[in-house]
Amino acid sequence: MYEVASGLLEVFSAVFQGYCLQYFFGRFLETRIRNRRIGVLAVTALYGVLRLGTGFFLPKGYTSFWVFTRLAVILCIVSVTALVFYRALGKIALFLIVTFMAVGEMSFFLAHMLFELGNQLFRLWDWCLGNGYISSLEFYNFVVSITLIGNQILFCVIGATVLYFTLRKVVQDYREKDYAVHRTELLFILTPGLTGLMVCTLLRITIDTAENGVPETLYDRYPSLMVIMPVILLLLLFSVMFGVKLFQDMICWNREKSSRIILEKQVSSLQEHMGEMERVYSGIRGMRHDMKNTISVIMQLAAGKEEGLQAYLEELSRTMDRLEFRFKTGNTVVDTLLNMKYHEIAGTVPDLRMDVDGLQFPEKLFIQSYDIGIVLGNAVDNAMDACRKLKAKEPGEEAFIRISSFQKRELFFLKVENSFDGKVVRRPQNEFPVTDKADRENHGIGLINIRSTAEKYQGTMDFKVNGRVFILSVMMKNERREEDGFRSNR
């Protein structure tokens, strides 16, 4: 009975490890099998069969040679499984292999500690039998068998639980799965797993000893290790999990730092040029007004006298008309920004339709003009990139950007809509869509800056997709802020 139960539990353990492997690798790597269910079954079955074969063919001894041989074989099994079923190239694959093996070994030894504690029950049954509390030898054998089976079940359940939840925690905390890991960062996240793997290897070599030819375990000789080793193993497991979390937090902090630097540069640049933009804007309007009046007078004086002069003056008048801004919202910064962006994209997407008729600002606008410029500048940059990508893939498709705004009580709402190719890649752990640009490490900084600016005014940012239209919505509170001390100019 015990042999049957032990065999079944060994099969369950190997198959469950295969399931955990496909869960862990599948959250990071692209699978080679399109059908998810078939992929899960194939990885689970292959790994389970190979692990069972390893246990069947390799000796059960704990000498240094066989311990390292076993470790090398398991490394080969995990690596082959990863290469067969996943596109497992790069530093991330090395991290996954080492972490999976380390967590598996530490889970095994944590369960083994409790298994050894459970074995202390046999001494209790021996004492009960010797003192007459168990009068029947048959009943004693039954209790011993049940204890053996119970210990094995407890061993498998605890090992499987620790393995699964540790890997799940690593998957959840490793949010930036598309991040290109650098060499130093790889060493940082590998060190806890490698340390745990080496500690478990040391335990396998030293766990069985002999005193005067009598076999005994390391725990029999040093009972305090029954408390010390679980604590060490738990600390190593925590170091694996917290190392990943710290690494991911560092990525987020660096990205936020980069976004703040870019945001500060944008704000500084806008602040420096606001006065100049207003002066140029006013100068152009005044010059256009004066020149059109002058040209009108000259045209009247020259009427009927010289045809060449008349044609020249008419062309000059049309040239002055082109000096008028294409977009006029009443906000100097916004007008200059939109016209600049439009002329920037006109060369690559000449048929772009840019509609800002719905962009209106309240009479009393307490939101700083350069903050409006930050939001619109980043939003329009993203929209322009999407339109360029759409026209490159589908030249016949319509490319458009629509910008509108309205105020409801003290809240100011800004909406930017644009056409795009309809493909948005989202990761469960990522707040923003995944970029297709080469610089993946800094993707989403434009949206981060929009959100940061909105939060200055107790607002927020959101986006959604409606078919092949990307819609960005920004809400800000249009109230005087104490730190401003003045109202921005329109």
Describe this protein's structure.
- With 490 residues, the protein is α+β, with helices and mostly antiparallel strands.
- The protein has two domains: 2-258, no CATH class; 326-490, Heat Shock Protein 90.
- The protein is built from twelve helices and seven strands.
- The chain has helices spanning 2-26, 36-57, 64-85, 91-130, 137-173, 183-206, 218-221, 225-302, 307-322, 332-346, 369-393, 445-456, and strands at 208-211, 214-217, 353-358, 400-408, 411-419, 460-466, 469-477.
- The strands form two sheets. The protein has a five-stranded mixed sheet, with helices on one face.
- β6 and β7 form a beta hairpin.
- It is elongated, with a radius of gyration of 35 Å.
- The N and C termini lie far apart (86 Å).
- The model is unreliable at 438-443 and 486-490 (pLDDT under 50).
